[in-house]
Amino acid sequence: MALEVLVAAFVLTQLCYAVVNCGLLALFLRRPANVVDERTLGRVLEANGGQIGREDGQSSRVAIQTDGGSLKGERGSPERKRSLGPDCRLPSPLRRRIHVFVPLVHGRWRGLESTLASIAAQSYPTSLVSVTVVYEPRETDAIALEGAIDAEWPPGLEVETLSLDAAARTTDRSNDDGAWWATGTGTSPTAATMLTAAFESRSVAADDLVAVFEAGSWLPVDAFELAVAGLEEYDIVQTKHTVRDVDAGILPLLDSMATAAWSDLGHRSSTGPYHLLGSGYLATGRVLEDVAAWRRQTGDDVPLGLAASHRGNTLGVVDRYVRLDCPPGLEAWLDRQRSWTRDLYRRVFAKSWSGLDDLRCWSGTLLLQSLALLSAVGVPAAALVAVLSASGASVVLPLTVRLLVGFNVLVWAYYCLRAYRAAWDAVPFRSWPHRVAYSVLANPLSQALYATLWAAPICLGLVDLARGDA
């Protein structure tokens, strides 16, 4: 009886896998038309009477020494011969001021100095970049924060701190018709309030650019340069994501490949509806003001990306990976992913969204999370069936089931190949042995187990949402 139940569970999960894999194949086969890369920069330069050099146009890895003397390789960046970034290839008329906002949620500023260093090392002129670190006075020691910034202050970069009481501003917002342009971007409500208040407190011209990065982000040296070029063709640009500290443990290592693959899979359409991640996006002040005005007029509490697409704003995806921190411990990792999942499904189930928008906007994420939930049953069932078959047990599977299993294995193998390619582009390996070791540890079996682990924060996040927990 137990064997029959096991085989039934195995067959059922394989059938569900096949349905999800058909959706993934549709995403795999859809080529993105909104990539911002060296070709975009070349088109922009050509349109403005310049041209990109052959050497600059080639994708390469260069060593960057801006993080305490450690070498950091960056992908697709022009060669550098100076300590603080290579020359910017954009002509002066295209260079616009960039206001960078870095919210510190719950008083966490781990890695802030590295974020500032990577911004200072940009090929984009630092004289046109200003950074505002936003924090809550009740959760952050202002003196300690100022000391941490002063100790690692990159030369030539304008950095200032801004103290905001997010709780008080949330109450104020609930009493009027104001709209938060930062809500629904993958940030917490607290961070969204802080970002909106910081934006409103700064003098941002219509043509100025606004960028949002979380503390601990590490930017490729030409991220701003490509983003500004991309904004000549699109209204909003979003960078891809991966994990920075891949040597901190097995969880960050596996998360780096999974995040790179997920980031590479999404945002296939420039017209949307699309979603923006909580970090690494840039837009003009005009676009943000227009979206905020539209949301005030309609009263729709929709995420920034969806609101922008409703306004006809196009999205470009910068072909560079911003590297974020990942908790090396299991408990901290579960807490972070649980919070992210809870916020995701709160937006998915929001009444102001239409079902079609939900499907188009979050299809890649929902398909991958469906795989994780299925793996909680499918992986153990497949392992037990394989062990029983190898030990001589009479496990008879019809031809149709075996074909189904073969299809699922092929799709998983293709997904792993795509994940490897994305990770090899995203992670700056120190040497080829480092790359080989990474690839061996992040093997398809490890990725399957990691996907199974993701079922825990997904279920916990859904339980939190059902109970009404914030």
How do the helices and strands line up, and which of them pair or pack?
Blueprint lengths: L1 H27 L6 E2 L1 H10 L6 H4 L3 E7 L2 E6 L22 E6 L8 H9 L8 E7 L6 H10 L6 E6 L2 H9 L14 H13 L7 E4 L10 H8 L5 E8 L6 H16 L15 E4 H14 L5 H7 L4 E10 L5 H19 L6 H36 L8 H28 L5 H10 L2 H10 L1 H13 L3
Parallel strand pairs: 1-10, 4-5, 4-7, 5-6, 8-10
Antiparallel strand pairs: 2-3, 7-9, 8-9
Helix pairs in contact: 1-13, 1-14, 2-8, 6-7, 9-14, 12-17, 13-16, 13-17
Describe this structure in words.
The chain crosses the membrane at residues 366-388, 395-415. Residues 72-84 have a biased composition (Basic and acidic residues). InterPro entries: Nucleotide-diphossugar_trans. With 470 residues, the protein is of the alpha/beta class. It has two domains: 2-31 and 362-467, no CATH class; 35-328, Spore Coat Polysaccharide Biosynthesis Protein SpsA, Chain A (Alpha-Beta Complex). Helix content is 52%, strand content 13%. It has 17 helices and ten strands. The protein has helices at residues 2-28, 38-47, 54-57, 112-120, 142-151, 166-174, 189-201, 223-230, 250-265, 285-298, 304-310, 330-348, 355-390, 399-426, 432-441, 444-453, 455-467, and strands spanning 35-36, 61-67, 70-75, 98-103, 129-135, 158-163, 209-212, 236-243, 281-284, 315-324. Strands 1-10-8-9-7-4-5-6 form an eight-stranded mixed β-sheet, sandwiched between helices. It has a two-stranded antiparallel sheet with strand order 2-3. A hairpin with a 2-residue loop joins strand 2 (61-67) and strand 3. Helix 1 crosses helix 13. The longest helix has 36 residues, at 355-390. It is globular and about 75 Å long.
